[in-house]
């Protein structure tokens, strides 16, 4: 698309209009909480001026982007899909948002998410960039922890959150990563060095590559379709000359519980600021401070959020801290060390499923409670967050139902470039039938006319 | 820093963001659940002196008191501990509040202004880190917080110098924690402090107290310094009981504090007051804090219990916000037990300090803190000055005390000398 813009085949404004039109047509999906139409059109206008003068800012100039609604956007409502932040308009941009805007990207709007990112959808704390990517047939990248600034990302778990990148192909993900990565003085957890944008080499020879297959990830819950694709992928690498070996991540089975304890504890802490005093929702109670806090937080948070806060506070109580929080930290260390050991033994990249199966229908999705569902959905992805490693989900094939299935590659810390190089090689080999924009719009037109589709509200 | 867009509430509401100065409350602990939103904190000024051992009635044995102190001193730095906001007592309300100070969602602790930066963390190689089998409270992800991080140098130096002056052991590695409680002047719902592993521990403070009616009857006592920790100050609440509302000024939120915890080695109010005065003098001599109680730069919480000698210690009660070393507090406040749910601060790596023996090779002196260098730079402490006056000028010890007074005390004439400690003209 960038090339098309540069060559003048399409103007930023046209591109913007098309996106806005598509957004309107797919409104029933409720994907956007806020559509920033005016802002986007204005940005498109400026981008067009730059192209006309031959002064484009780079590959992202004029490209429409959407940002999840837990990233702070100046002047644009940021809600985290929560009543607690309804009407909250931040005075500053998250660093990653600013970087995109500095490159001339067009901000189409703020996308929907589970309230405060506590569910299967979210920025990547436990897999919530990679899981949706796998289900939707796009590339979902979780960079190494510390590579991309979290300033302005409303936190869920500070020690695991990473801004995630969703794109149509691996090359695009690399471009965006090159722009977003690097030191941010506003985030002390970012690496010190600046990161230069990079282009991915086209790998042809994989004979020096060693792919690890973690045996603990072969679970009974894994659908046969995903399992067979996983094997197929392993064979693909082997047949092209790569070394493919079975490896062990022995503490895998503890990761869900460990994640749950650490996640809820940090969540309880991070949600403490939402008290209705300075910003966001405030209840009408006038009786006392305590009553005001209680009512505000009851009204502002849904039951998933409240449940996690209660759990987290329980684990942080003096009498429980050692047995839960400290223990979980120790287990986290062990999980991280599992990965280190495997990479130290000569493995370059791990290959695993991203999800247990293709996307399940909504009716089935809502059957399990949030905690069970999260535990199931995140099973392959959350250990990566605990270890701070980079991982990417690449779409591989359509299921027998016609829904996308993706596989996950996990790399060494700060070796995101190498990870994406391998992912790119794989993407090229499997030739996943990526949906084309025009095709999508035509499909949506017909759906729109036939409005029998129930409105889906993601809560 | 730009003032954040805080909401102004219409009349009839309880909380308004403004500030009229004064009315300090150090945010530690939650008052008992009262239904009135007006009364908060314990900025009490007493009419009577502190409980001393009561005169025993006939047939009753004596009471003995045990007093421990937690002293909060505002660090004399140009900017706040974790944000670049300026520190200025006299500024208009809510004019020195960065987005982080206001705890806007998504903000993180950040670098101080350029000239105040220092390096403080290098977690070593992952291999070393993972090879350590010991139980550790460190969050493993801190490994990824790379070589050079930034903290407010002035604040760290203040803590180290104060620790050295009080003969503490300086921890080469110290950690930051979150201490959670809900209060209007604590926007994040937690305070960043150092509970698990503070910057300095196990020191002592020598002070002199009058045991008789005459100045010449002074004895030297020592109180143990349990620890010194770096932490954030809270904002200020001003209770306006007339209109049943509380006004909040966040200028002070995030200012660096030194908390000095004194062991319960004191047995009465006079001793406590004497210890506080000596600490005040030391802080002023060091220049680490102006320690002016009247301006809220020094705040004291006392932990007091009473018991019959020979019997077990009584119930400990905490009295907050003693604002003057003279008029001290009788009000007993019985708080419910508060669990602060301490948790490591995930956005800050360990604070690492060095000495001349352990300085990393090729380290930029601007980026590291060398404890030995700071030790050499320590100014003369009040105790030493008094000893000199006695030794060199043949002065009576009690006169040397009278001469060295803190800036809190009224003075006839003064000759300023380093750090705010003033000598009364002869």
How would a textbook summarize the main sheet of chain B? Answer: 7 strands, antiparallel
Into which percentage range does the β-strand content of chain B fall?
A: 25-35%
Using a beta-carbon cutoff below 8 angstroms, give the protein chain pair with the largest interface and the number of residues from each chain.
A-B, 67 and 61 residues
Strand percentage of chain A = 5-15%
Category from helices, strands and their pairing of chain A: alpha/beta
Give the domain tally of chain A: 2
Determine Rg of chain B (CA atoms, Å): 22 Å
Helix-strand sequence of chain A: HHEHEHEHEEHEHEHHHHEHHHEEHH
Supply the number of helical segments of chain B.
6
* Broad structural category of chain B: alpha+beta
Oligomer: heterodimer
Given as residue ranges, the uncertain stretches of chain A (5+ residues, pLDDT < 50) are 449-459
The CATH class assignment of the largest domain in chain A is Alpha Beta
Number of strands of chain A: 10
Radius of gyration of chain A: 22 Å
GO biological process, one term (chain B): glutaminyl-tRNAGln biosynthesis via transamidation
Biased composition (Polar residues) (chain B): 34-51
InterPro entries (chain B): Asn/Gln-tRNA_amidoTrfase_suB/E (IPR017959), Asn/Gln-tRNA_Trfase_suB/E_cat (IPR006075), Gln-tRNA_amidoTrfase_suB_CS (IPR017958), Gln_synth/guanido_kin_cat_dom (IPR014746)
GO molecular function (chain B): ATP binding; glutaminyl-tRNA synthase (glutamine-hydrolyzing) activity
Description:
The complex is a heterodimer of chains A (459) and B (426). Chain A has helices at residues 2-6, 12-25, 37-53, 95-102, 130-136, 170-180, 224-239, 255-270, 289-300, 303-316, 318-344, 362-365, 370-377, 382-387, 416-430, 437-449, and strands spanning 32-35, 64-68, 106-111, 139-142, 165-167, 210-214, 243-247, 349-353, 391-398, 404-410. With 459 residues, chain A is an alpha/beta fold. In chain A, the strands form 2 sheets. Chain A has a 7-stranded mixed sheet, sandwiched between helices. A 3-stranded mixed sheet of chain A has the order 1-3-2. The two termini of chain A are 33 Å apart. In chain A, 53% of the residues are buried. Residues 449-459 of chain A have low confidence and may be disordered. With 426 residues, chain B is of the alpha+beta class. In chain B, 15% of the residues lie in helices and 26% in strands. Chain B has helices at residues 126-131, 153-165, 269-286, 371-377, 382-393, 397-403, and strands at residues 15-17, 64-74, 117-119, 150-152, 169-170, 173-174, 177-180, 190-193, 200-210, 218-232, 236-240, 245-249, 256-266, 298-307, 317-322, 343-344, 351-352, 404-405, 414-417, 421-424. Chain B has a 7-stranded antiparallel sheet with strand order 5-9-10-13-2-14-15. A 3-stranded mixed sheet of chain B has the order 1-12-11, with no helix packed on it. Chain B has a 3-stranded antiparallel sheet with strand order 8-7-16, with no helix packed on it. Chains A and B meet through helix 8, helix 9 and helix 11 of A and helix 1 of B. Chain A: It comes from Balaenoptera physalus. Chain A: Keywords: ATP-binding, Ligase, Nucleotide-binding, Protein biosynthesis. Chain A: It holds the Pfam family Amidase.
């Amino acid at each position: 698309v960038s090339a098309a813009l540069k060559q003048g085949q399409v103007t930023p404004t046209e591109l913007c209009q098309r996106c806005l039109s598509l957004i309107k047509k797919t409104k029933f999906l409720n994907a956007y909480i806020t559509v920033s139409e005016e802002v986007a059109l204005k940005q498109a206008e400026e981008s067009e001026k730059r192209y006309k003068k031959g002064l484009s800012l780079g590959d992202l100039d004029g490209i429409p982007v959407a940002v999840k609604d837990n990233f702070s956007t100046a002047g644009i409502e940021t809600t985290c899909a929560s009543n607690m932040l309804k009407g909250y308009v931040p005075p500053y941009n998250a660093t990653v948002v600013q970087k995109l805007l500095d490159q001339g990207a067009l901000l189409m709007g703020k996308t929907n998410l589970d309230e405060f990112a506590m569910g299967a959808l979210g920025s990547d704390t436990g897999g919530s960039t990679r899981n949706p990517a796998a289900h939707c047939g796009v590339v979902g990248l979780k960079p190494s922890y510390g590579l991309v600034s979290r300033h302005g990302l409303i936190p869920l778990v500070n020690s695991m959150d990473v801004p995630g990148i969703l794109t149509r192909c691996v090359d695009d993900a690399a471009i965006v990563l090159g722009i977003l990565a690097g030191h941010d003085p506003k985030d002390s957890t970012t690496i010190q060095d600046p990161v230069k944008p990079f282009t991915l080499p086209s790998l042809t020879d994989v004979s020096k590559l060693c792919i690890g297959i973690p045996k603990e990830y072969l679970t009974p819950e894994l659908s046969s379709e995903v399992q067979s694709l996983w094997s197929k992928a392993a064979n693909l690498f082997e047949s092209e000359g790569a070394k493919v070996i079975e490896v062990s991540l022995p503490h895998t089975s503890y990761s869900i519980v460990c994640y749950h304890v650490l996640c809820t504890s940090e969540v309880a802490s991070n949600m403490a600021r939402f008290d209705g005093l300075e910003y966001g929702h405030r209840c009408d109670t006038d009786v006392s401070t305590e009553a005001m806090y209680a009512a505000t937080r009851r009204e502002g948070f849904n039951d998933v959020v409240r449940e996690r806060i209660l759990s987290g506070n329980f684990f942080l109580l003096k009498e429980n801290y050692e047995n839960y929080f400290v223990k979980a930290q120790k287990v986290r260390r062990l999980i991280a060390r599992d990965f280190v050991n495997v990479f130290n033994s000569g493995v370059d990249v791990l290959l695993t499923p991203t999800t247990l199966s293709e996307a399940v229908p909504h009716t089935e999705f809502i059957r399990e409670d949030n905690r069970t569902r999260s535990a199931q959905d995140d099973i392959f992805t959350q250990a990566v967050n605990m270890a701070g490693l980079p991982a990417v989900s690449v779409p591989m094939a359509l299921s027998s139902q016609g829904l996308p299935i993706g596989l996950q590659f996990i790399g060494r810390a700060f070796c995101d470039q190498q990870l994406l190089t391998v992912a790119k090689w794989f993407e090229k080999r499997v030739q996943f039938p990526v949906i084309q924009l025009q095709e999508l719009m035509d499909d949506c037109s017909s759906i729109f006319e036939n409005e029998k589709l129930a409105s889906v509200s993601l809560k | 820093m730009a003032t954040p867009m805080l909401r102004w509430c219409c009349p009839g509401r309880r909380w308004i963001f403004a500030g009229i100065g004064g009315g300090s409350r150090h945010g530690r602990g939650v008052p008992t659940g009262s239904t009135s939103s007006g009364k908060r904190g314990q900025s009490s000024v007493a009419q009577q002196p502190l409980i001393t051992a009561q005169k025993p009635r006939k047939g009753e044995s004596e009471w003995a008191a045990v007093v421990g102190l937690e002293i909060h001193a505002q660090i004399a730095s140009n900017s706040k501990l974790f944000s670049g906001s300026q520190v200025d007592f006299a500024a208009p309300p809510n004019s020195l509040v960065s987005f982080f100070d206001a705890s806007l969602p998504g903000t993180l602790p950040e670098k101080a202004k350029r000239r105040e930066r220092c390096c403080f963390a290098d977690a070593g190689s992952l291999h070393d880190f993972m090879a350590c089998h010991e139980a550790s409270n460190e969050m493993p992800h801190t490994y990824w917080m790379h070589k050079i991080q930034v903290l407010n140098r002035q604040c760290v130096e203040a803590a180290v110098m104060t620790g050295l002056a009080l003969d503490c052991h300086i921890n080469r590695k110290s950690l930051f924690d979150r201490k959670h409680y809900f209060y209007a002047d604590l926007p994040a719902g937690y305070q960043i402090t150092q509970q698990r592993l503070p910057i300095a521990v196990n020191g002592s403070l020598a002070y002199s107290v009058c045991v008789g009616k005459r100045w010449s009857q002074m004895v030297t006592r020592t109180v143990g310094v349990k620890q010194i920790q770096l932490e954030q100050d809270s904002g200020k609440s001003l209770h306006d009981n007339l209109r049943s509302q509380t006004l909040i000024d966040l200028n002070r939120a995030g200012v660096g504090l030194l908390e000095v915890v004194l062991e319960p080695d004191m047995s009465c109010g006079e001793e406590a007051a004497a210890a506080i005065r000596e600490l005040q003098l030391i802080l002023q001599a060091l220049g680490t804090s102006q320690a002016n109680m009247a301006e809220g730069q020094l705040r004291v919480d006392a932990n007091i219990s009473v018991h019959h000698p020979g019997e077990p210690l009584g119930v400990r009660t905490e009295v907050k916000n003693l604002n003057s070393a003279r008029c001290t507090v009788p009000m007993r406040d019985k708080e419910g037990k508060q669990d602060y749910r301490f948790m490591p601060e995930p956005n800050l790596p360990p604070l690492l300090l060095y000495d001349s023996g352990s300085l990393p090779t090729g380290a930029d002196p601007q980026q590291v803190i060398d404890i030995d260098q700071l030790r050499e730079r320590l100014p003369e402490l009040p105790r030493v000055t008094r000893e000199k006056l006695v030794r060199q000028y043949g002065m009576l010890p009690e006169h040397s005390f009278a001469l060295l007074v803190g800036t809190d005390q009224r003075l006839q004439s003064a000759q300023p000398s380093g750090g705010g400690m003033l000598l009364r003209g002869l």
